Each structure stands twice: as C-alpha cells, then as structure tokens.
Amino acid sequence: MTIQISQKPLEILLIEDNPGDVRLTVEGFRETKAFNKLNVAYDGEEAMAFLRREGKFKKAPRPDLILLDLNLPKKDGREVLEEIKDDRDLKCIPVVILTTSHSIDDIEETYSNHANCYITKPVDLNQFVKVVKSIDDFWLNIVKLPNKETGDYNGG
After folding, report:
1. Measuring CA to CA, which residue among 98, 91, 67 is closest to residue 146?
2. What is the C-alpha to C-alpha distance for residues 18 and 1, in angstroms, rounded to an integer?
C-alpha cells in the first residue's frame, strides 16, 4: 500500500541584508529537504512592502514564518518587528529574530515587542547551518502555525 501525504509548502520570509547569511540560510533549508518556499527582503523597507503587498510585491505570498535580522539598512529590524506586531493583519505571523547581536537590551526589547524567538547567529559555518535546520525542525515541523488566509494550520 502506498500512502501519499500532501503538505502545502510553508512560506518563509527572510529579512536579511548580508548576502553570505542569505546563502547560508538557503543552504540550511536545502539540507533539510523540506518543501518550503523562502523569499528574501534585503532591507526593512522592502520587508514591509513585501508584507503589505505594495508595489512590486502586490502578488507576494503571505509568510507563515518570518526570520528577521535586527541590523538592517533603510529601516532597522527593531522597527520592522514593531510594525509587524502593531499591524492587525500581520501580528499573528511568528517572527524569529536571527541576528549577530548578543545584547541583553536587544533580547529584552525584541521580546517586549512580541518576538517569538531570539537566536544569535553562530559565526561557524557548520553551526549556522545547524541553527537553520533546527529552525526548520521546530517552527515548520513541530509547531502549529496559523494561516490567516486559509484559516488552516500547518501539519506540525
């Protein structure tokens, strides 16, 4: 007997300005062999346009999960987090802070602004890929994520 399980790919928005970190994140997700779609915004303004489906992002998919760097050009990641969590239509999307900052102030501020998780990026290549795999395993396979557009949940 063959059983096919069909799961809709989850949409992930990576908000990251460092091309090297984008490449490592893509590689980490590729190694998980999961069927997820990764979109990238390279600065805070682009991220908010993507999330609000403005301009060239009019047909952008709604993310199921956001990976957010704090140190971004044009609009800082802290501002992006605050705008997401203040927006009635966006606030239920889980936001994982993925940053180089070890600052206690950043950790406290982002949790105060309702970040769902705070991860400091490892500098070691293999550790970075391991962190991305753990994000995939936990947030995309274990946790139930809401899909406001369909009223459905992922299969976690």
Report:
1. 91
2. 47
Residues 150, 123: Cα–Cα separation, whole Å: 38
pTM: 0.84
Rounded Cα gap, residues 40 and 81, in angstroms: 16
* Short-list 108, 36, 106, 38, CA closest to 69: 106
Domain ranges of the chain: 10-144
Report CA 144 to chain centroid distance, whole Å.
15
Q: How far apart are CA 63 and CA 98, in angstroms?
A: 16
Reported confidence tier of residue 144, pLDDT bands at 50, 70, 90? confident
Cα angle for residues 40, 42, 47 (degrees, 5° grid): 75
Which strand (E) or helix (H) includes residue 116?
Answer: none
Topology (CATH) of 10-144: Rossmann fold (3.40.50)
Each residue's pLDDT tens digit, 90-135: 999 999 999 888 899 999 999 999 999 998 888 777 888 788 878 7
